[in-house]
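User: Last request for today: this protein with TZP, please.
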Amino acid sequence: MTFTRDNLYLYFIMGSQDCPNHNPVEVLKQAIQGGITCFQYREKNSGLNMRETVRLGKELRNICRQHKIPFIVNDRVDLALILEATGVHVGQEDLPAAEVRRIIGPSRILGVSAETPEEAKHAFADGADYIGVGPMFSTSSKPDAGQPIGPAAISRIRNHLPFGSLIVGIGGITPKRAPDVLAAGADGVAVISAISKDKQPAHAAQAFLQTMRNSTKL
Ligand code: TZP
Ligand code: MG
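Assistant: Here's the final one, the structure of the complex with TZP:
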């Protein structure tokens, strides 16, 4: 599957822990209907065991395949390979990016979280295709996310990277705040709760696309 800058535009992340009121399969279907451009499967302390995680992952992957949405797996390279995922996303405390690149080969997508220009430069040198920068704003979806670094962090980091480096902002992003993240130089926004916890995930995704497109209209 091809993966381009456009895939970062509205990047939805979810595991069953993020869907207290719905079935994650339904949430993903709705989010796709609403126009998301990429999906990351992030099962974290949800209570699912590894077998259940694989079973749900296959279901979510099949839905992404049907709709030609890239399917990225958070943290776990073994799970990404089992699920024949489009790619993997790792943080600074997960498997080192260079090792992940070695295991997944040249074709799968590698995303890496980075908070500083140094982390960002290392991530790309180690084989990242894109970086995730955050938390932009305060978030309740990741207890260890640390203090918000704000959209300005994206401009700062971009200044140290070659033209065209792919960056997605993450953390506490709502439809109203998304334009600030784009204005700071992000290629897109990565979102958990503003879509997964909405009563109507399709509408929530559409609301993002609307504010983002309006903000960049000439
Ligand atoms: N990494 C940095 S913040 C965050 C992750 C996974 C959580 C984003 O979730 P939300 O609900 O969009 O704030
Ligand atoms: Mg991680």
